[in-house]
Design goal:
By secondary structure, the chain is an alpha+beta fold. It has one domain. It is 18% helix and 39% strand. It is globular.
């Protein structure tokens, strides 16, 4: 079992400031399978951020089986986190735009 809040806080160490976020919990086979949605809007206050994290304080099975968490966190510098998944095993993955290659300059 994994705690969603703890997992997120661990991956946010040494990352840029979160700009906004949208995380859903449930099995996303179709739109009716979403159980809960956690939103952090642009321009959030410290209290909004605290409430967002507190709502994520639940355990879920991050191992093999069906995926439980979906979502994206956007950072101020243009990078983002999204959920990776393989055969039901899931994790947060940090994404950034690739460097522009010399042949395009």
């Amino acid at each position: 079992m994994e705690n969603a809040r703890t997992e997120l806080l661990e991956i946010l160490v040494n990352k840029p400031k979160v700009k906004c976020a949208k995380i859903t919990k449930g099995e996303k086979w179709d739109e009716y399978d979403i159980v809960d949605e956690y939103i952090l809007k642009i321009g959030y206050t410290p209290k909004d951020y605290e409430n967002f994290l507190n709502k994520l304080d639940f355990n879920y099975d991050s191992g093999y089986g069906g995926q439980n968490l979906f979502g994206i966190l956007w950072f101020d510098d243009g990078t983002w986190l999204d959920r990776g998944e393989y055969d039901g095993s899931e994790w947060w993955q940090y994404q950034k735009s690739p460097d522009i290659t010399d042949d395009l300059i």
